[in-house]
Amino acid sequence: MSGVEELVARDAVRKLYAADGSLWTEDPELAAEIARWTGWLPVVGEMRREAAAIEAWAGETMTRFERVVLCGMGGSSLAPLVFGEVLGGPLVILDTTDPDAVNAIPVDGSLFVIASKSGSTLEPEIMEEHFWGATGGDGSRFVAITDPGSKLAARAAERGFLRTFLNRPDIGGRFSALSFFGLVPAALAGIAITPVLDRALAVVERSGPGASPSENVPLQLGAILGEQVKAGRDKLTIVASPSLGPVGLWLEQLLAESTGKLGTGVVPLADEALGPPEVYGPDRAFAYLRTDATHDAAIAAIAEAGFPVTTFTLDDPTAIGEQMIIWELATAYCGAVLGINPFDQPNVQAAKDLTVASLRAFEAAGTLDDVDPGSVADALATAVSGKSFVVIQAYTTPDAASEAALQEVRGEIRDALKVATALGFGPRYLHSTGQLHKGGPRTGIYLQVIADSTSDADIPGRPWGFRTVIEAQSRGDAGALRETGQVVARVPLSAFADTVRAALAGKG
Fold it and tell me: Which of 320, 304, 341, 300 is nearest to 247 (CA)?
C-alpha cells in the first residue's frame, strides 16, 4: 500500500480538517491533546478576514518609524524573515544572542516587536530588557505578539506597549507563519498580506475532504516525505531559487521539529550548495522550489542520476503563502505516515534546562563551567557515506562573511566524505532543528563553532550579559547532545577551517 493509499484508508484529510487527533494515535487521551494543536488550519481564513484591518493599522503606525525590529526565535522569527526577504520591506530580524548582532541593531527610529508564544522564552525576554533600557522604557515603541495569559501579555499591559496581538493558543510556533506571528511583522514592513493569504486560503479550500487524492497536492507531498524516510532517503535537500531567500530555513524548522523524534524523521538540509550527482548518497531526496531557471540544469542532472526530486514552481512572490500551507499540511500527513505526533517537541527542553543550569552556576561562581571540546578529527572519522549528516552549529555573529566562510568548509566536508551537511547559527537552530538533533536519527555529527570575540551587550536587571548567555547555550546544547550519545566537537571560529581541513586530509 502506497503512502497516499494508507492516508486515504485512514481518512486522513477529513480527520485533519476536523481536528481529529486519532489520525496520529489510537490513544484517546493523546488524540485529544494532539487535536488542541490544529488551529493553524482555520487561522488562515480568520487572518484573511482581518488582513485589511492589520494592513491599515500597520500603515498608520509606520508613519512614525523608519524600520521594524522583530525580536523572536524559531517560529516567531523565521516566517517574518522569509516575508521580509521575499516580499521586501524595512524589517530587521534579531534571532540571536550574539552580542555583536545585538549591538548592531539601530535603536533610533525603530519599532520593536517582541514575539514569543509562551511569553517566557529566554531570548526575546532578554532582548526586550536590552531595548527597553536602550529606549528609556518607552512603551509606545514596542508591540507584543504572544498567547493569551502569557507573561509577555501581562508585561506589555504593565509597560504600556503600543499594541498586543494575542494569537490563537492552539498553534505551535513552527505552524504560526500565517497567524499574527508571521503576518503582523510583515504588514509593519509594508508587505501586502492580503494576496499572500488569498493564495494560502485557496490551498486550504481545494485540498479538503472533497478533493480527489490524486489532485490533493499536500496529501501527495506528505505521503512522499514519509515514504522517502521509510526507504532510507531521510535527508531532504531543499533547493530554492535565489529570489526565495531563506525559505529553506523556514522549511527546516517545520520539518525537523515536527518529524524529528522517536529516532526517525525528515532531516532537512537548507542552503547546501548544489554539486554533481556523485557527491550525494542513497540517503538523499530533493525538494526544489523554483521561480527561475537558476538551478534547473543541476537539478535535472540529479534527477537523471536517479535521485527523487519534488518540484514546485512559484509564479509570483505571493505564492510563498501557498507554499507555506502546502508544507504545513504535508508535514502533518507525513507525521501520520511515520507514526509520530508532529505537534510536540519532546527533546527541546533538555538544552534549555542545561543552559539555565549554566547561567545559575555563573551567578554562583562568576564563571561558566569548562566543557570538553572533543576532537574534530575523531568526530569526522565516524562519518559514514550515505548515512551520516554533519551539522555545523555556529555560535558566532550571523553575518554574510561568517556564513560564506562556514559554507565553504561545509562544502569541503560534503565533497570529501560524501555525507549530507547542514549549517545552523546558534541559538536560532535550537528553536528549529534542535529537536531533530536530539530526537531524530542517531546519525548526526555535530561541530560547534565558537566565537573568538569577547564583546558583550548588557541586560538590565540580570547578573550576566548576552556573551554569557550565548556561551551557556552552546554548552547546554553540547551537553544535551552528549547525553543522547551523539558526537560533538567544539572549536573556535578562527581555527575551524584549518582544523577541519587537517582532519579531512588525515582521513584521506
Answer: 320
DSSP codes of every residue in 254-290 = HHHHHH-BTTB--EEEESPPP--GGG--TTEEEEEEE
Report pLDDT digits (tens) over 467-497: 999 999 999 999 999 999 999 999 999 999 9
The residue among 314, 338, 362 that closes a domain is: 338
The strands making up 444-450's β-sheet, listed across from edge to edge, are: 420-425, 389-395, 444-450, 487-492
Task: List the CATH number of the domain containing 293.
Answer: 3.40.50.10490
Instruction: State whether 51 and 166 are in the same domain.
Output: yes
241 and 303 part of one domain = yes
Report how far residue 38's alpha carbon sits from residue 491's, in angstroms, rounded to the nearest whole number: 41
Return the closest-CA partner of residue 258 out of 80, 79, 436, 390: 436
**Has residue 495 been placed in a domain?**
yes
Range of the domain at 48: 43-197
**Omega before 28 within 30 of 0, i.e. cis:** no
CA distances from 196 to 56, 191, 226 (A): 16, 9, 28
Cell readout for 65 is 518609524
User: Distance between CA 401 and CA 38 in Å, rounded?
Assistant: 40
Number of domains in the chain: 3
Query: Tens digit of pLDDT for each residue in 339-373?
Result: 999 999 999 988 899 999 999 989 999 999 889 99
**Rg (alpha carbons) of the chain, rounded to whole number:** 22
Q: What is the pLDDT of residue 297?
A: 98
State the Cα angle at 79 between 75 and 85, rounded to 5°. 145
β-sheet bridge partners, residue 112 = 69, 142
141 and 229 fall within a common domain:
no
Residue with cell string 499540511: 329
Count the helices and strands in the chain (H runs, E runs).
Answer: 20, 13
Of the candidates 234, 237, 238, which has an alpha carbon nearest to the alpha carbon of residue 226?
234
pLDDT in tens, 343-352: 999 999 888 9
Using an 8 Å Cβ cutoff, are 329 and 218 in contact?
Answer: yes
Backbone angles phi, psi at 233, to 5 degrees: -95, 70
Residues in the chain: 508
β-pair partners for 487: 445
Same domain, 325 and 403: no
